[in-house]
Amino acid sequence: MRTRPASATKNDHREERVQRLDGGFVDYAWLNLSVTDLPRLAHESLHAAYSFDDISLLQGFYGSFWLGAPESRSVLFILPSVQRGPFQSKYSHGGVTWEGIQYISIDEGEIACLYSERESGLRMIRGELRDGDGRPLRGVAARVAEVLAEERRLLFFPAGHQDMRRNVPAPDSVDLIVPVSRTAGRLSTASKDGIAFNSGYFVWTDEEFSQDPSARVPDPVGMLVEDGIIMHPPIYHRPTFEIYEGTTPQARIADYSMADIDVLIAGSTYPGSSACTRECPTCASDENLVAIVGRQVVGLVERRGRPTPPGGGFLMAVDPDTMASILGGATDVTYKLRERAIPRTAAQGAIRIISRGVPLDLTVEAAGVTLTTTPAVVGGIPPNHLTASVLLSDKRAQTAVGIRADGSLVVCVVSSTEPRSADLRFDSLGTSLVNVANRMMEEGCVEAMAFDGGGSAVLAVEGKVVTRPSDRFDVRHLPRERLVPVGWVVRNPSVSSCLSSIEMEIR
Q1: Mean pLDDT of the chain
Q2: Quick check: helix, strand or coil at residue 22?
Q3: What is the DSSP letter of 133?
Q4: Do 283 and 289 touch, CB atoms closer than 8 A?
Q5: Which helix (H) or strand (E) holds 59?
């Protein structure tokens, strides 16, 4: 029988272990925040130092663990440039065209060029990129490789590098190119002076970036608001957790789509409903199309081309005057909500699980949000492998946020373990969203929604991860925190974040 600890109504975190009927355990971590803590809660972009350890985390995932397991893959990482600018001013050979889009950003152009080379083979020989036959690259590709090498933005991990399972030869072929975002960090670092937990989805799997030069790992996907500025628009239909300031701060769960925003480019305003996304891939016009990711125009679309929209962005038809301004360098994009004020901070998540004090039918809710229907297909909707059945049925790590009737918040983070590395004596096996919804009801929530789960699910307190991330890279008892682009951070909470209690429950 479970007894609620006395500290559960205060601003604290606590942990509990629940024994499952089929054997094993489920570890829950709970965070309670009062209304007075809402001004201290903000959604923030994270930043990596791009240390060897940071990149090693990515290498472990893409080179040894993800779709390559149990085989190893050689991975070439492209680190971000310090500054962005017109691609044409960087390389004398002009822009690069990729599936109908001419990329005008330095990074997108570089990535598009190397993706093109990758189709015919790419090798890393003695620190130099060469074609599949081992010959030096030519033309634009040669200049791209030269500049990337000069700026130390290439990092090659041959297959088997740091692979603890076996010792394999180090081939020079490039199996996968992974462009890395400027925004990628650890929630444990973000929690140095408070508490942090993960939020929405981001570009992660091979299919989401390997043929999309505008995508980088781990770019955020979906509605994001920081300090009252919309950083990313709601390109997919998913619920958004938001906080409004006022006499009394208020947390809400809202629904947004592109129809709720206006897009401002070079002094002109365009309705978001005319955007072309992967959910709605038909554009109103084939002329003067531009590719937009976040707050930046990243590419120009040829009139004869019908490219797949960026996974984390959209295509928009603009008038000739706007196109002329973009060609002149006016590539910044801003957004505004059409019928309501922009919240102070917000992030889109996965699915609602409680509304008006009642647990929802999650099958119905899943039908109303944007999820991929064809997993592991290039050009699909991120997150590419998260179908409705996976979201609703799989027992996995989970993160959810709930709102009580008095306006206070409850955050639940469930630990889990990748099945290949699970030790049933020690590891949490995860749980379903239905169980999370039931537990959030017990905590007094009247509204609740789920955020990203799996290896991203993390709760960190004062610089330390207090949950056990599910990524193991096939090494038992060695949880690895995943790099994420954004997260929720509570700065200097009103009650010491060290205050915690352990609750044991057996069912």
Answers
A1: 85
A2: coil
A3: T
A4: yes
A5: helix 52-59
User: Each residue of 58-112: pLDDT tens digit?
Assistant: 888 888 776 555 567 889 999 987 654 444 444 444 567 887 888 888 888 889 9
Q: Rounded to whole angstroms, how far apart are CA atoms 317 and 372? A: 25
Is the pLDDT score of 459 beyond 70? yes
Per-residue DSSP letters for 66-114?
Answer: STTTTS---EEEEPPPS---BHHHH-TT---EETTEEE-BHHHHHHHHH
- In SS3 terms, 394-438 reads as CCECEEEEEEECCCCEEEEEECCCCHHHCCCCCCECCECHHHHHH
The pLDDT tens digits of the residues spanning 211-234 come to 899 999 999 999 999 999 999 999
Domain definitions of the chain by residue range: 14-47+186-232+344-506, 52-179
pTM for the model: 0.90
Q: Is the dihedral of CA 422, 424, 426, 432 positive or negative?
A: positive
Please report, for residues 100, 124, 288, 411, the alpha-carbon distance to residue 309 in angstroms, rounded to integers and kept in the order given: 11, 31, 14, 34
The H or E element that residue 203 is part of is: none
Q: What number of other Cβ atoms are within 10 A of residue 328's Cβ?
A: 10
The rounded distance, in Å, linking the Cα atoms of 405 and 277 is 36
